[in-house]
Amino acid sequence: MADLETFRAETRAWLEANCPPECRGGGAGEADMVWGGRNPVFPTPAHKTWLDRMAERGWTAPEWPSEYGGGGLNREEAKVLASEMRRIKARPPLFSFGVWMLGPALLAFGTEEQKQRFLPPIVRGEIRWCQGYSEPGSGSDLASIQTRAVDQGDHWIVNGQKIWTSYADKADWIFCLVRTDPEAPKHLGISFVLFDMATPGVTTRPITLISGKSPFCETFFDDVRVEKENLVGTLNRGWDVAKALLAHERTMIGAMGDTGVGRPLGQVAIDALGVDEAGRLDEPLLRARIADFDIDAAAFRLAMERVGDQVKAKQAHPAIASMLKYYGSELNKRRHELAMAAGGADALEWEGERSQDGQAARDWLRTKANSIEGGTSEIQLNIIAKHLLQLPGA
């Protein structure tokens, strides 16, 4: 405990000295997120400074091994770092599918060469990744994918289409499921490969959502060359990699329900509706709903920490990610429903200075996809019923 308290003191001092004021306070809206990549966009120079400083310590991936650029922290130290960042409302220095999804898969299934090649640049935010899983005819039934990789000796030629590929039009590389043995049962004959989105034959087309914006794209592969050195895991056993990565993706989506950083929902409501004579939100029913939400959010944050400890100790049930994904998605949707209720008619404004160009309404509409992406809520409930609760007939 003494060593941990020393680590906390040192971490607190370092964060105070190195986290720029521009990267503190408030939630990280879309315009404030740093995704890195070959053509990074930084809202301010301070955001680049913050990323560079955190990446130098490996704290963009604090629990990854230091030999791959990570922070080399143990679980308890990583929790201290997270709590100290919350204390000063430090915004995440990097948003990265490489950190959240691909990196853990590479650590578990990648070759040493692949780890050395890809993990350090991911930590530094130098490669922006997208995920090639869903297809027009293979959404919840992901194992029925038809994108084909034909063996050409030292490489494959890939043809097919993916859909709902988040940020495909901005990504540098893709981690992708392809069918390498069309004669095998659908869960077999799938391989997990990596390739550059600048490869000839790769095209993307954004899909506009009801919010007027969208991170999603259609992605097309026409005779795309993929080198065999970019196969992750065993040939035709990509479903093993895919399942492991899905657990990380679902935990990532579930983490959206953790609202520990950003403006408290109660403050958002007070700014919109004012306070009563006792200094409380001047809307008792909404006040009670927000109190319920805050309690549930705090409980969920503790559940996330507990599951993280179980994962580290290899004691977590494989299906627990579905529970986190389901509850976190619903919690995030509740938060934005409450934000809309607090904003009243002004929150419905689509454009204009009062509504910050309709940001509240657009964010609210965007959350409707939370219960679809990464596996629908219905699929998650089926997994929970069958594998966690073991209900008859599930």
UniProtKB/TrEMBL annotation:
Q: Which prosthetic group or cofactor does it need?
A: FAD
Location of the Acyl-CoA oxidase/dehydrogenase middle domain: 130-224
Per UniProt, the keywords (alphabetical) are: FAD, Flavoprotein, Oxidoreductase
Asked if the record carries the keyword Oxidoreductase, the reply is: yes
Superkingdom classification of source? Bacteria
Q: Where is the Acyl-CoA dehydrogenase/oxidase N-terminal domain?
A: 4-126
Report the residue ranges that make up the Acyl-CoA dehydrogenase/oxidase C-terminal domain in this protein. 236-389
Q: Which SUPFAM superfamilies match?
A: Acyl-CoA dehydrogenase C-terminal domain-like (SSF47203), Acyl-CoA dehydrogenase NM domain-like (SSF56645)
Family of the protein in this entry = Belongs to the acyl-CoA dehydrogenase family.
Q: This protein is called what?
A: Alkylation response protein AidB-like acyl-CoA dehydrogenase
Q: Which organism is it from?
A: Brevundimonas faecalis
